[in-house]
Amino acid sequence: MADEKTFPFEILALQKLFLRDDVRFVIAPGQEGVFEILANHAPFVFALKPGPLRMRMPGGQDQYVAVGTGFLIVQKDRTTVLTRSAERPEEIDVERARRAKERAEQRLQQAKQDFDVARIQASLERALARLKVAEYASLAS
C-alpha cells in the first residue's frame, strides 16, 4: 500500500553497516520483552537481547535478522540498531547453531562453578536466535 508510512532503519554490527533500508515496522527482542517500532515513534533507547529481529518492508514482505546484544535507538529522523552481531538467514549454519544450543544446555544442567553461567546463557540465547531466524525464513519461502 502506497500510503503506508515508512522510516529509515539501519543496523550497525561492530561498527560496520549491516543494513540500511526503509521499513514499515520493526519488531525486536528487548531485555524487557519484545517491542514494535512504527513510523513516528517517540525517541527512545531500548536494550536488546539476542533474538530474531523482524522488519516489514514497504512491499509487505518480512525480513528477519538474528541480532545479538545491543541497543535500538529511535530518533526523529531514523531508527538504528547497534549490536555486537547480526546475521541474515542465509548466513546461519543451522547445524552449528543446534550443536551450540545442545552444548550450552548440557553445560547449564551441570551447573558447576567452573562454568560461567552468564556466558553459557548468552551462548544459548544466540544459538536460539539463529535457529528461530532460520526457521522463520524457511517458513516464508
Which key features would you list for this structure?
141 residues; alpha+beta; ATP Synthase, domain 1; Single alpha-helices involved in coiled-coils or other helix-helix interfaces; 2 domains; 5-stranded antiparallel beta sheet; 2 helices; 10 strands
Q: How do the helices and strands line up, and which of them pair or pack?
A:
Layout: E1 7-13, E2 16-23, E3 25-30, E4 33-38, E5 44-48, E6 51-56, E7 62-67, E8 70-74, E9 79-83, E10 86-87, H1 94-110, H2 117-140
Parallel strand pairs: 1-9
Antiparallel strand pairs: 1-2, 3-4, 3-6, 5-8, 6-7, 7-10, 8-9
Helix pairs in contact: 1-2
What does this structure look like?
Helix 1 (94-110) packs antiparallel against helix 2. The radius of gyration is 16 Å and the shape is globular. The chain has helices spanning 94-110, 117-140; strands at 7-13, 16-23, 25-30, 33-38, 44-48, 51-56, 62-67, 70-74, 79-83, 86-87. It is α+β, with helices and mostly antiparallel strands and 141 residues long.
CATH topology (level 3) name of the largest domain: ATP Synthase, domain 1
DSSP helix fraction: 25-40%
Basic shape: globular
CATH class term of the largest domain: Mainly Beta
Number of strand segments? 10
Under the CATH scheme, which architecture of the largest domain would be assigned? Sandwich
Oligomer status: single chain
Number of domains: 2
Strand order in the largest sheet: 2-1-9-8-5
Indicate the structural class: alpha+beta
Determine the mean pLDDT: 90
